[in-house]
Fold these 2 entries.
Entry 1:
Amino acid sequence: MAIVLYNRRDNPSLYGASGPNLQAVVTAPGQFAGFGNYPTLASTVQARIDDILRIANNNSDSRSTAYRNHVQMALDIGNLGSSIQSRNPSPGPLAFWRTDGSSPPGGRAVLYRDNLLGNDFYYTGP
């Protein structure tokens, strides 16, 4: 997902972003549900994050180790910054993800990976 954000940052006008920075990409109208007023998150997004952190920090919850690992991976990816772009796995720049089962984004979007952890990933084709 981080690769998608950085690829969109490099071509902001293609994705409705107001400028070449991550905040403009994330807050672009109609692009990332719940992030339109970032850094203020929609209550549903904030509740999901709070729930993940609560479970990760609750040693009596049998899911805590898996959730702690998830949180650590998110932090590790975040700390890579734009160097993550060099790991772009698709033939073209990864530019979209949709919840599995959602309609495709359309345009020049080409399906790269179907149902990876509940998400479909697309790259920008020719």
Entry 2:
Amino acid sequence: MPAEDCIAIEDSENGLKSATAAGIKTIITTSEYTRQQDFNNAALVLEDLENVMIASHNEPLSVQTLINLNRRTPI
């Protein structure tokens, strides 16, 4: 699968660096240990994925929703 068709979900700066080095858009979920790390290159930074909705699509966040969103528009 091409990198441009993928979305990574990571929780650390090192995970973000790895995913972006591979050309993959990355969503970060922070924790008490990683909250202060540099996530400037992330497509999206969230505290967690619980109850997250894609507002423009009124859909719960799921792997399929992310795939569909990635195909339609950049995050």
